[in-house]
Amino acid sequence: MTRWLAEYAWLPDHAEPTPDVLIEATDGRLTAVTPLTGGGAPAAGVEVLGDATRLPGLTLPGLADAHSHAFHRALRGRTHDGRGDFWSWRDLMYSVAARLDPDSYLALARAAYAEMALAGITCVGEFHYLHHGPGGTPYDDPNAMSAALVEAAAHAGIRLTVLDAAYLTAGVDGAELVGPQRRFGDGDALRWAERVDAFRPADEHVRLGAAIHSVRAVPAEQLATVAGWADRHGLPLHVHLSEQPAENDACRAVHGCTPTRLLADHGVLGRHTTAVHATHPTAADVALLGDSRTGVCLCPTTERDLADGIGPARRMAEAGSPLSLGSDSHAVVDLFEEARAVELDERLRTRKRGHFAAAELVAAATVGGHAALGWGDAGRLAVGDRADLVTVRLDSARTAGVPPVGVFFAATAADVTHVVVDGRTVVADGRHLTVDVPTELRDSIAAVLS
Ligand SMILES: [Zn+2]
């Protein structure tokens, strides 16, 4: 058994953190979570042994990054030539995609995932569409790129859901994939399913999910094939949705309806589905998402970086959509920043404060993200859940004097000191135990950009 004594811990369904919590785990699962009462004295029946690791600061459940494209990490800070717009960003993204192979993908993803571990992210959902070799030729193992991601997450010490994306066309009008996009394509949804069926990672830290890249990339008549595959296997299904108004316009022009309506009509929405972004839904779209209990993954720092806009987060939550968070393009890897942006962006849009309680933001960053990625047993400091612990210091220049309940409005990823994933310590004293993160990021990025 392993024991930790948290100065503060955020327990499930609590509006604010609880002081002096003894946390115990065996075989990667939490076996006891015990608040010590009376100014630190053990509660009746609880004996605090000297072997408990003290965790000064606030200990949270594991954070889940529900939307990642690992290789986009290479683009950080490089897409602002002149002024930089969405298209200059996409051009560079394609040029990196064109250069990756399973080895360089492994190195870059391993460094990106290790940066996530340092930021307190214990589980990542990789929305994966870079499947094939140059020109679209499959590798000998057609899932070699997925396998590289699995290995990368293992090295970084975090859990992974490979959301294998069907990416078949270049536009809503069915235009063929061209240039680097050809590496994304499987031809049609049946061949996509055939390839994914052949990928069954047995590793404990990995689960599989499906993704529809967007209504631009999967023809309407093939949406149900991907959704049905996910449903048959009981796996999560993710889809980029209405990230930009242009997608809505193109969908209306071709299909006469919004992307959300199109997904609803083809059986894509539901409680196992997560819509990523949902930045420009209509009121009817919000109702469709909420009534079907479709989750919404917000990626505020990417939406900010790409000038996408601000999604109606509060309205979607109230309509019934559970929220999760993603760092997406990795312009920033910091779920504290993503979480507070959900509230702060609403303030900018409405010129009013107070849309989300702190506990709601914590839930989106933890249990909401894990649920969206198919890990229903993670994201809470509760007996039986996975032993994921993320400790944030309360004595940094950013957090000193901040009440623990206010941490999500003050801390950054740099304030994470200790990270435990499935009972194993991955980060201690702010250092990754096995990966030299800055060096590996620098080298792996140089390798694909030089
Ligand atoms: Zn994305």
Question: What can be said about this structure in brief?
Answer:
The protein has 450 residues and is α/β, with parallel strands linked by helices.
Overview of this protein structure:
The protein is of the alpha/beta class and 450 residues long. Helices cover 34% and strands 21% of the residues. It has helices at 86-99, 102-118, 144-156, 189-197, 220-233, 245-255, 259-265, 283-291, 300-305, 313-319, 335-350, 358-372, 437-449; strands at residues 2-9, 18-26, 29-35, 53-60, 63-68, 121-128, 159-166, 206-212, 237-241, 273-277, 295-298, 323-325, 389-392, 416-421, 424-428, 431-432. The chain starts with a strand and ends with a helix.
Cross-sheet strand order for the largest sheet:
3-2-1-4-13-14-15-16
The count of helical stretches stands at 13
Ligands and ions found: zinc ion
Number of strands: 16
Coarse morphology: globular
Q: Could you tell me how far the N terminus lies from the C terminus, measured between alpha carbons in angstroms?
A: 48 Å
Chain-averaged pLDDT: 95
Q: What percentage of residues falls in helices of 4 or more residues?
A: 25-40%
Structural class call reads alpha/beta
Strand content bin: 15-25%
Radius of gyration: 21 Å
Largest sheet: 8 strands, mixed
The low-confidence runs, each spanning 5 or more residues with pLDDT under 50, are: none
Oligomeric composition of the shown chains: single chain
Q: Element order, helices and strands?
A: EEEEEHHEHEHEHEHHEHEHHEHHEEEEH
